[in-house]
Amino acid sequence: MESLDELKGRAEQAVPGAKITIVPNPGPANQPSLLLDNEHAAAVVRFLRDDAVLRLDHCSNATGVDWLDRKVSKKVKVKKVVEGEEKEVEETQEEFFPGYLEAVYHLYSMTHKHGPVVIRTRTKDRAEGARLPSLTPIYRSAEFQEREIFDLYGVRFDGHPDLRRILMWDEFEDFPMRKDYREPDDYEYEPTPHDDVLERAKEHYSARPQLDGAENLTAPS
Amino acid sequence: MSGQVDESLRSELQKQGIWVTSTQELYNWGRRNSIWPLQFGLACCAIEMIATAASRYDLARFGGEVFRPSPRQADLMIVAGTVTKKMAPQIVRLYNQMPDPKYVISMGACAISGGPFKRGYNVLKGIDRYIPVDVYIPGCPPRPEALLHAFMELQRKIDGQRLTGNGKAAFLDPKQPSDFPVPAFGAHDLEPPSNPEVFQPPLMERT
Amino acid sequence: MSVGFHELEEAPPPMTARVEGDLLEVSMGPQHPSTHGVFRMNVALEGEIVRKLKPVFGYLHRNHEKIGENTSYLGSMPYTDRLDYFCSMTNNWAYALSVEKLAAIEVPERAEYLRVILAELTRLQNHASLLGFLLSDMGAWGTPLMYAFRERERILDLFESLSGSRMMCDYMRFGGCRCDLPPGWMERARKVVDAFPRFLDEFEKLIVSNEILIARTQDVGKLSAELAVNAGITGPMLRACGVNYDLRKVDGYGFYPRFKFRVPLGEHGDCYDRLMMRVLEMRESIGILKQAMEQLPAGPIMNPKVKIRAFKPPAGEAYGRIEGPKGELGFYLISDGSANPYRYRVRPPSFINLTILEDLCLGHTVADVMVILGSVDIVMGEVDR
Fold this sequence. Notes:
The complex is a heterotrimer.
Chain A: H1 4-14, E1 20-23, E2 33-36, H2 41-50, E3 58-67, E4 70-82, E5 85-97, E6 100-108, E7 117-122, E8 131-133, H3 142-153, E9 156-158, H4 195-201
Parallel strand pairs in A: 2-7, 8-9
Antiparallel strand pairs in A: 1-2, 3-6, 4-5, 6-7
Chain B: H1 7-15, H2 23-32, E1 37-38, H3 44-53, E2 76-80, H4 88-97, E3 103-107, H5 109-113, E4 135-137, H6 144-159, E5 184-185, E6 190-191
Parallel strand pairs in B: 1-2, 2-3, 3-4
Antiparallel strand pairs in B: 5-6
Chain C: E1 24-28, E2 40-46, E3 49-56, H1 64-70, H2 77-81, H3 88-103, H4 109-140, H5 143-163, E4 172-173, E5 176-177, H6 185-208, H7 211-217, H8 225-230, H9 236-239, H10 247-250, H11 271-295, E6 316-324, E7 327-335, E8 343-347, H12 349-353, H13 357-361, H14 366-376, H15 380-384
Helix pairs in contact in C: 3-4, 4-5, 4-11, 4-14, 5-6, 6-11, 11-14
């Protein structure tokens, strides 16, 4: 199979205006992915499926990933004037990456028996802008998987024929797989709780007298 | 009447071919040797339940081979597998549809208390939050021999049930409910999260 | 609690004279004797013919992926047993393969051979159980299931003496297997594999020449190759349509290229072909097993350089897949360098094979729906995760 750069070049030629970026994959697995922009994603994927050399006709997997807002701080050497002299001082610079939701597709070819080509599409943000183009008109196998991403992450797929919840009940209102989801307080007796289980269980404990300097286990009232 | 007959007299009579019993014993004996389970498996424990009913660990020896698909014809519901919150209202509905006297065996760690999937937004932490359970079988999955042991425990329990008097069985007492309210799907959780008449979480009294 | 009519506050609503469009909506499941677990289908029937079918699942959604994000890599291994609870060994292998891809871990020879042997044994007992369930759904009422489970018990005995548990084996590790064969295991396994063809011949006679089965499965649930490829169908269901795509040959993972075996292909893509696929695959599995058991080398079963506890793979992502008995089972892992995966995703073959259930059942009768569903071979633990 051709390399990802050649693939990117041909795809950009076939779909004018498409912005494709190669996202490198650190680590030994050697599966870098192509990040597509939301406007032209469907057209690019259609090209990948119908192109005679590639024939990526098997969409094996569609995954949703949640990335929260991240602050990455780096120590940078900066030239600054200190006490009348120019010196190189170390400064911490903080870079803010806004959070987004992502859909990752793994494409293989059953005709030519090669692959995978990994495609990524990203939403603008994690709230109102959580919309992505649906690949269901191109690959039928994405139908249930995109419904699952909608159910668990809250990403709306434009162009999906039947977008509704698939694993949770219809009246459910949260998106459980998001990283900031908090489970309902479903207290259950734990004989030896520790760490975060202890934190959650403390709210159910009864008041305890302070004996012999013991730790006060009551919840804040 | 058999309460007044001495054990030694009873065995003497039996040797002569005369059998003395009471209605209660006869009634319980008939019921416990012909329990009809409901064909109801949720997850992996269901496969061990089928293996128990298969030819190697035969459940038919105990009279329990007739698995009925309809709850209206079953006496025993073996809740085998993880109970999820999406499935819980259907389980309570099925329990309500079973006619009295009915029993529940909670098979496997998931049906007892959520099991390995306890930290879950969709997992109900034990079916005993909504319906009363008679026998609990720990294990993940419990071996077929464990299910047979539970079956025998249930048979012993049925043997000991009284029909009259103060300690009579729950299904004969009009004040004890045999229907339980079905939980509804809420926005974040089931409503109510548990049935307070059936399930009280143990109080964490730390002294 | 029944309410007497004199206690009602208002009169009951009048019965409508006809249902809208003469379509009767039936909800089959989630508690149903033949639906292979808690699976529900909302079927709209015109008489007995199916006009619409919408599957509903989630009744066994145990948030396996969320647990995977909060557990270490090794801690997720027992949870993979419970995905497709018939085939715990192949689930373990798929997960171990993905982590080995993520961290570039090598597996010693003996461990790879052991993995192949256990995977093919799993395939044997899975296909036998499936045929047993399908025949009992069609009305044979349990007898073929007893025969299939008799063979399954023999294989489960082997698993139990090797890993300690009949079903949830938790046997593979990243870089090898957990423990080596106990003495005498190989002889017992050889006996089981040698006795299997006799069971298969008996079973095949029940299937191939049984006229009721032929009438109920031929030309029922026909699947075309184009739709199958586009819908991501994998496994015996895909090969029954004539598409030659078996991951054991395509990806060549785990020393499969060393064994000589054929890939059976179907012609029509109907239920009968899917049934026969499984029978033929069982025969091929017996061939692979005999070769693997002969060639099994001595040696270590675990890569000594791997830290099993406190395992921290380098940051990155990987997608690994194997040919499980039900189809392509894949694991997609994103690691950020810590002990827990950042994203842990299971690609479930049964879930994706259900995409075209509606297309297969349209125009058939209600009785055929059960046969078609049985031939798709689903396990709810995998569909819902």
